[in-house]
Amino acid sequence: MSQLHNFNVEDGDRGSFARFVSKVVLVARNLRTTNVKLIIVRAVLQTGLTPSASGSAYLELEQQPPGQRDSALLSTTPALKLTCTVHGPRPLPRSAPFTPNMLLSTTVKFAPFASHQRRGYLRDAAERDLAVHLETALRGVIIAERWPKSGIDVVVTVLEGEEDTWWGDIGTSRTPLGMMTVLAGCITAASTAIVDAGIDCVDIVSGGVAAVVSDSESEQEMSTTATSTYGQLVLDPCPLEHKQTLAACVVAYQKERDEVTEVWVQGRLPLSTQPGMSSEPEAARLVDGAVQAATAVRTVICEALKESQ
Fold first, then answer.
1. What secondary structure does DSSP assign to 69-82, as a single string?
2. DSSP classification of residue 201
3. Whether the Cβ atoms of residue 206 and residue 292 lie closer than 8 Å to each other
4. Whether the Cβ atoms of residue 21 and residue 307 lie closer than 8 Å to each other
5. Model pLDDT for residues 91-127, shown as the tens digit of each residue
6. What is the rounded CA–CA span in Å between residue 62 and residue 76?
7. What is d(CA 23, CA 47) in angstroms, rounded to the nearest whole number?
């Protein structure tokens, strides 16, 4: 089982970045019968980078196993870098019909250099899909009835993402695991930027990712292995570190209200427990892991907002 550890705040170079927060977010522990593998995720979250916007945030996540350095020309270390700006609330045009609630518009766009395969300047289906998930996650947090006939625009630009690391066989139509990591980062950055803009919310929402992985080459080998669960649960997973990713889940979680505003599950999981497995259903175990990851990320958001005051 993956475990969460306490956060250690590190003082960074304040210089021009007066509200710089650098922390160790997660230590995902992959327990095996022979060894224990530690994966450290370093997070940098900063607000107020765009003065022209009502609120803004910059998020950077980087996984680096202890004592390991990338010597290749193209780094294999997964990283996520994105910016989010919030414009509004501002009045709608006079020609727009009256609405008692504030209109929320979300946009997610990958920079052309965000992945190994250069992307186009026009939004594709994957970016529009991420925008829909992001809007669903934020709609349950914002108190929209306080701004009638007004709207806000949430724009997320992905500077570097894991969109090009696919899990599963090449050529299949499965959603890449990296897109779920990008969505969790978008939720975290957008929530921070909305609070930085002074928009009333019922709670702070944070994104978390968990996956059920296996180091077996095939399903037949995995079925012959004596394990108590369907696979190993990993928080903030990386597709390059495991041979198979059986299922993945991303959630948008509000800790104080104990509510989930968005759930996205992809993969294959048993519908019920089987002989030799634990009594807890695999789907519930996967969602609980994503909630734990989101709870840990919330601490980073709170510290970044305190520094921005």
1. ---SSS--S-EEEE
2. B
3. no
4. yes
5. 999 898 999 999 999 999 999 988 777 888 888 888 9
6. 11
7. 15
